[in-house]
Write a structure and sequence with these properties.
alpha/beta, 4 strands, Rossmann fold
Length: 291
């Protein structure tokens, strides 16, 4: 049985009884690890054009998000005629694993993702999300510095299964997927590789998903998958209902790679690396943390 994960705005039990179809794509990530980027890439590969037939949130719904009524999400997915690609922040051990589906897990340097998470939370309309989800409002992070935000996260001890954006939760998500990396329907993607070679990673993913793409359309698809292009179309690409983000374009803030590490002192880096070594085997750490 899948592990049951619950947070302030998610419940993995909403996957119970989900009716899979052959070819379904499940995009499983932690917050700010490249979720929307991978949704956009899948949309471009599935439809074969930058001119998508709807907003990304409509085309690729977040099934376990409490902000959206479960019945509405399920009926919307049932009505989709295209190859479905579904968003989740639930680790693979919390999902029904169906051989007809492909599970794409995206990882990112944990420090970079955590830094981005601070700006993400400051951009959210917390009151609106609370009202839509029916859950208590999660406090905004306030005026904490990027440095202190990172250090508190490195040193925090918590029950990771109730705080999947903790360092322990991030590492568990990736380590669990890493243990399944040889399964034919599990694909691991790293944010740094998308940044370094977007076209190459898109072509690799198309091959793993058995999607044929017209060679002539590749330049347009790759251009539409860049962060700059997504930022320019933020109203259609940023996740959630209208108004969830105070400034939708800020959702695609910078996409920096490897810069958060410079915010920390040597002793703080040592503590961070020690914790990683305690949480996962060396091969997982080496792949996840491209420091």
């Amino acid at each position: 049985m899948p592990r049951h994960y619950v947070s302030s705005d998610e419940d993995s039990a909403r996957w119970d009884g989900f009716r899979f179809r052959a070819g379904d794509i499940v995009i499983s990530t932690r917050t700010k690890h490249g979720t929307t980027w991978m949704q956009m890439i899948c949309a471009l590969l599935v439809f074969g054009t930058p001119d998508l037939p709807g907003s990304l949130a409509e085309l690729s719904p977040w099934l376990d998000w409490l902000v959206l009524p479960a019945g509405e999400v399920a009926s919307g997915l049932d009505a989709q005629a295209h190859r479905r690609f579904i968003k989740t922040h639930t680790p693979l051990d919390g999902l029904p694993l169906d051989r007809r589906a492909t599970y794409v897990v995206v990882a990112r340097n944990p420090l970079d993702a955590r830094r981005s998470h601070l700006h993400h939370r400051r951009n959210l309309d917390r009151e609106l999300m609370s009202r839509l989800s029916g859950q208590p409002e999660v406090p905004a992070p306030g005026d904490v510095t990027e440095h202190d935000w990172l250090v508190e996260w490195i040193d925090r001890s918590c029950d990771w299964w109730t705080d999947l954006d903790s360092l322990e939760g991030v590492v568990h998500h990736v380590a669990d997927a890493w243990s399944r990396r040889d399964e034919p329907n599990v694909v691991l993607v790293h944010y740094d590789d998308l940044s370094r070679d977007l076209e190459g990673e898109m072509r690799r993913l198309a091959s793993r998903l058995d999607l044929d793409v017209d060679e002539a359309t590749w330049p347009a698809l790759v251009d539409a998958a860049t962060l700059d292009d997504m930022r320019s179309r933020a109203e259609l690409v940023a996740p959630g209902p209208p108004g969830l983000f105070r400034e939708p374009a800020r959702f695609f803030r910078a996409g920096e790679v490897g810069t958060a590490r410079a915010l920390l002192g040597d002793d703080e880096i040592d503590r961070y690396e020690l914790r990683l070594a305690e949480l996962a085997p060396p091969d997982v750490v080496a792949w996840l943390d491209r420091g």
